[in-house]
Specification:
Chains A, B: Keywords: Oxidoreductase. The structure is a homodimer. Helices cover about 50% and strands about 10% of the residues of chain A. In chain A, helix 5 links the parallel strand 5 and strand 6. At the A-B interface, strand 1, strand 2 and helix 7 of A face strand 1, strand 2 and helix 7 of B. Strand 1 of chain A pairs antiparallel with strand 2 of chain B, so a sheet runs across the interface.
Chain lengths: ~375, ~375
């Protein structure tokens, strides 16, 4: 079966690699750099230390950290202003920071507004700024993907997709993930696990993508629980971070499926952490999914150390238990019912993830999955 | 343990992908292209068909095919003349064609002679021409490596190394390998197998490289014998081609070891196919090597479907038997003795492969290995 694997950026892995960001920027020949970094990381002193590294290399560095939560067009535009004139862009943080940095590296190169590229309205510039991506959460895989999400002027979720947005260099430093609280470690880790699982088992799965996805499943299965329970265990943190990166490569080539249909639909209704929403959607659909009984499902189960796919639902629920994931929705979902979720799951922008799922999803299936999700307690 | 994985070019895999070379060049925005292709392939009509593809896309294409055997500086210079002025370079053939194309893409961009870059005398140009690599043998892994070999003005083997020489796009088309004779399929396939094995087990082995190397071992172990015995079995040809490509990624990051010390030493004495020489060197040293009893050796054995590393020597000899590899040296080795081979194995340019080997190689070991190789019959 034919397949293609988009280019994979240079990946460096190791403890305290964040101390080499300045020299990495220097190796790109940069004299000016822009750092897009999560606000709380900037306040922790990390931004200042990286600016100092840059100065030691003779690089003038500016910082943009004025954002929080899901990226909005205003964040992207502000980041683009800061990035314009720099030769290299460094994204440090969770998926939001990385997405903003990747988009800004394109917009700053062309002078165009992000809306010019949203939903593939126009081709991306061929020569974006050089990009170094340094994830501090282990989940989104944005460091190795070509997909970038932000909310448009009317609050609607938009995407910019293209190889031009991909990183040139990825630095994976498990030390940067050590301060991630246990619940975020678990939610992000499950997001990565589900990226790998869905990429390896959906209708677009292929040998090239499965190669990365199965390794991600092996790494995450082996280390996620330990990373949650022993936050300073750098070996476990490292495996989860590398697994998340490989899972990002897998979705970059093969995409996701029903669990992401549900989590994107939930995000359209009320604020909820993407990893938590995806984990809840995955658990609500997995027993139904594995009835498809495909070779890909069995291969994914084997990568998790299981004998066959029938063991997956219990295994995943057990993993979520052991990682302390509370099955509950944020309070904001109190005003939302199953019908509203079902409608959102059928919205046009969520159909690609419905169609890519290995089983056909009927409207009755959607009603059932939505009811299952909305029957969860609404917690704080 | 820290590691880094150099960028991996976009890889497309599928039967008859060579029919898309013209559209791939077009997608790079090229109006002019240069094709570096093995002479016998050019004569088979393949070059003409690709030129016609290019013309259909509005691309003016020139062809360089005036070379055979190991690349010499004259070939590289002639290729650079043909390539100069083109926007994209397409390499089609065995490792020689690909190496020449990759070097010419750099030299044509800068206007410098290849000797300017040999042995890392000067940094490579930052903006080489775009490169599409289409291997027609499954062995060298040149399509995914940064190493390029040619003979200098005095006949001495030289190398040009650097990420700037790497492909932007790799097209893996098993159909192009179907006419490879059985002995070349076996020799090249063993070269790929040994690339993967040595990269996964030498002193520079790391998690990133082993990930690619183990997949290569799985693919090659499963398919090489079938590809040799059933030349039109495209599934087997495809697995060997993909395995060779992944093995190329593995050596690009972790290098080789003693078997390549021996084959490079042999090449310094008389003409011999690189894959055959490497296979002979591997078989002569493997029983000694596995006494090191490392975790990496056992993991490589497992990737070959074995229980542990002690099974490797018999397994490899059996695989070589089943692939019909005759243990014999070319006639040109009649005038060469073990002492000469040992001296060559100790030559400065072959020491990196000696030092990277997981066991220390004493001069007595070298004498023994050289005697073992030179005791082989000298055939036609």
């Amino acid at each position: 079966m034919p397949f293609s694997i988009s280019f994979v950026p240079e990946i460096r892995f190791g403890e305290n690699l964040h101390e080499t960001i300045g020299s990495a920027a220097k190796a790109f020949g940069a004299h000016t750099a822009a750092i897009v970094i999560d606000g709380f990381l900037a306040q922790s002193g990390l931004a200042g230390r990286i600016v100092a590294q840059m100065q030691a290399e003779g690089i003038e560095a500016r910082v943009f950290s004025d954002f929080a939560g899901e990226p909005k067009i205003a964040h992207v535009r502000h980041a683009t202003e800061v990035v314009t004139g720099a030769e290299v862009v460094i994204g440090i943080g969770g998926g939001s920071a990385l997405d903003i940095a990747k988009i800004a590296a394109c917009c700053a190169a062309s002078g165009e507004d992000a809306m010019h590229y949203a939903l593939a309205a126009n081709p991306l510039p061929k020569n974006p700024l050089k990009k170094i991506m340094v994830p501090t959460t282990a989940g989104t895989g944005s460091e190795t993907s070509a997909t970038n999400i932000f909310a448009g002027p009317e609050g609607k979720k938009l995407w910019i997709w293209g190889a031009e947005t991909k990183a040139d260099l990825v630095l994976l430093d498990p030390v940067l993930t050590a301060t991630l609280p246990a619940n975020l470690t678990a939610w992000c880790g499950m997001d990565a696990f589900i990226h790998a699982f869905e990429a390896a088992t959906n209708r677009n799965a292929h040998a090239g993508g499965k190669f990365y996805a199965h390794e991600a499943l092996r790494l995450l299965t082996g280390a996620l629980e330990t990373a949650v329970k022993e936050p300073d265990n750098m070996a476990a943190r490292g495996k989860v971070l590398l697994g998340s990166c490989y899972a990002g490569i897998a979705i970059d080539n093969c995409g996701t499926a029903v669990a992401h249909n549900i989590s994107h639909a939930m995000a359209g209704l009320a604020p909820v952490h993407h990893g938590l929403a995806t984990a809840l959607g995955f658990e609500a659909t997995l027993a139904w999914l594995v009835e498809a009984d495909t070779a890909d499902l069995h291969a994914a189960a084997k990568a998790c150390g299981l004998v066959d796919a029938a063991e997956l639902p219990a295994f995943v629920s057990g993993l979520m238990d052991r990682c302390g994931i509370v099955r509950a929705l944020p309070k904001a979902f109190a005003a939302i019912d199953a019908q509203m979720l079902a409608t959102e799951m059928k919205a046009p922008e969520n159909q690609p993830m419905r169609r890519s799922t290995i089983r056909d999803i009927s409207d009755a299936d959607i009603a059932r999955f939505a009811a299952s999700i909305m029957s969860l307690p609404k917690a704080a």
